Amino acid sequence: MPGRLIVLGTRPENVTSAKIQFLALPQKNVRLTLSPDAQHIAYPSDDGQTLYIANADGANPQPVDLVGAKSFDWSPNGQRLLVGASQGLSMVSLSDRVPTLLFASGFWQTDAAPYSIGMVWSPDNQHIAWVGGGSDTVMELSVLDTLKPAEPVHARLPTTPDIRYSQPVWFADGKRLMLRVGDKDRRFLVIDALSGLQKASLPILPFSFLKPFWLSPTGQWVILQISGDPKSGLYMMKTDGSALKFLIANRGGAEPVVGWSPDGQRAFIGSGPLSYDNLSSDIQWLDTTDLSLHSALKGQQVLLGWYWSPDSQSMFVCQVTQNERRTPTAGKLWLVPVVTGNSPMVLLNTPVCPDYWLP
Fold this sequence. Notes:
Helix content: under 10%
Number of strands: 30
Strand order of the largest sheet: 3-4-5-6
């Protein structure tokens, strides 16, 4: 059954324990998404014919008149939900839970996160943006005002058969978007969201391949994953393309895990799971005031989850030990104080990491 984490305490420095609460939901194979304000969940019925929106604890499930709902994206304030369903893309407001059809067919990418439609909400909860196109020679960045759902603003993107754009990422001002121009093109575009005009094309970077990137909430820094070079790993630079700095090297087949603190002053940096015989997951955090890296946790365990406290002062980290079948056999939920420098503390011994972290 899906679970959620309850952390006991008023502030991270006062937290002393935690527990996992499992949700009793009417469906067997639930694929749910939690709203950013941690107040509601959305999930489809097992037959895919009904979408439900319920309280975060699973209580008061209410059906929504959408058939074949397969993908969901909450607005940042948790008040509206974009739903990709059989009839197209719809928006559901929690105020009335009545779906409004935006498009009769899909425009979104197919390589987005699980249960995500590939569209991204602006920080002001008003606009959505996506990259799409009908061929290898026509690609566009589109921005739609959800309060005035008429014709979206389109920005034609430089396109060749080798270019595959990343999902767009909003700046905190809600006016600009950043995109990675393919794996091989090695550069970024910054585009004005309201006019569709290109604001900047960052310098071509001296690497073979660019992978994911993580834009800071302040819009000042971006962390990059580089592969295919002698010094592959994580780098950071300013969003104008300057001050490029190497952070850590790639560790074999491990995928890096990066997460910015809410205030954009720090970043969580970890390495994902490798093979079962090499399970170490080094966890560090980056301080942008002096660009220094600090060790947070080390151990022969797999990193399965993490979350910044809302005040950006501490991290909650979940690590587990796996057997040769990659089945968790033991684990720990840690509280890692960052600002105070206090030692990490185990809040919970459990092989079950939470599916969602409540703010």
